Amino acid sequence: MPGRSGRRCRLFWLLASCLSAAFLCLRSELATQPEEEPSPLPVLQLSLAFLLCYSLIKSWCPVCPHQPCPVLAPSASLARKAALEGYYEQRLRVSPHVLGHSRAHVSQLVGELLRVGRTEQDGGTLGFRGDFLQIGSTWEQHQTNSPDCFDILVPIKVPQVLQLEPSFQAGPQSMPLSLGGTAICRVKACSKPEGARCRREFMESFCVRLEKQRALSSAQVLRWFHAKVLRSLNVIRFQWEQRCSISLLPHRDQLILKLLPRADYVCCHISLSVRLIPALHVGDSVFLVAESSRGKELLLPALTPGTLWAVYLSKHEHKFLNWLRAQTPSNSCHLKCLQLMKVLRDLACREFDQRFSVQWNTILCTYNMKTALFHLLLKGPLDAWDEKFLMERLQDLVLFWRERLQKQELMHFFLGNKNVPDFLTVPRKMKEVFPVNLLAGFDAALLDLVSFQLLKTWNCAHLIMKLHSHKHLPRNY
Fold it and tell me: Which of 120, 156, 276, 457 keeps 20 to 30 A from 57, CA to CA?
């Protein structure tokens, strides 16, 4: 039961159960006295027994998530609007100068890092392609912190004598990998006789056996990538020491560069965090990303650990966002809605216990929130996303999420979606895969509870923001 109110409610009903039991015992003792006449209709006894049963049920069962939330008074609605708009102006609006300077600084450093790494290519192993792709909320302008966190997709390549074959099926029964958009990357050797040694060394170093074939191991690729970036960083570190201090921080299975500016080289004096993400380009602007998927592999125990890859269609997302920018009003609020939804998610999370907090952030992760926004944008007229309708569109987004959670279904915007707009030119093989439900695998009761808490958070947004207005939002990688 998340929060303190649930624990207090259980304590109240537990106390009521104890009092009811005590009254029943007292009534039974008095009824055994000889001077008392037996009652033909023990109404009090039946009432106390009913109260005891009801109290026990209420003390151990969670509050029903479908109970209606109170309707806000007009004054509360105005207070919520003022709180959200004030928070955006004070905490979320970003200076174009700071954003542009930070982007240029990150792009220059990453470009130099990959240039050095590309010169150390080895024909029998993986290597940098040389380019990189800017992804994530800072580049897409829906970040909830200052522009100090950047995600960079680093494409890597395999030896030319090998060929990658992504598969969205697993196991002998061709079980679909509908786990948030994951795939297995099988490796096929070309028929050329030269390079047999290269193929053998690569297979032994980076692949695991999956049935009768070989699959590329995301865990092995991550280990190689970490070592490769560290060697490249040691080469360029002295060139940048007068500009900024650079450190490499492993964060779980992620690799993060911390940049601390020196003197006045970076005029904005912002400490930057750059997350480097290794990815395989498998054609048609589709990438397979090596990242931690231990939780997903627990749902598919038949798979060899470290064989799942996340499917990224970042270029298609960028294209859709650019199309929205051209089709919506010049002062459209769709990205602002996404920012404020993420803020409400992060602020409400502080009132939950640790376990529910993790579940809440997993279900309402940024990618799922962006997917829900994409679906909602295509449902109605784009002119309705004018800035003056901000509160109405925010409420639509909350209610859309509530509907999806209660139906236990939020479909991937690209994978398995045959109705994706044609101008996005999504590869046919992506449209024809088994439809991916991003809420698959979550317990129905948990999704109901998240739905209830989300609506409660929306109704109490002005109070939550007032309570946490002095605190910084956590950085979610």
Answer: 457
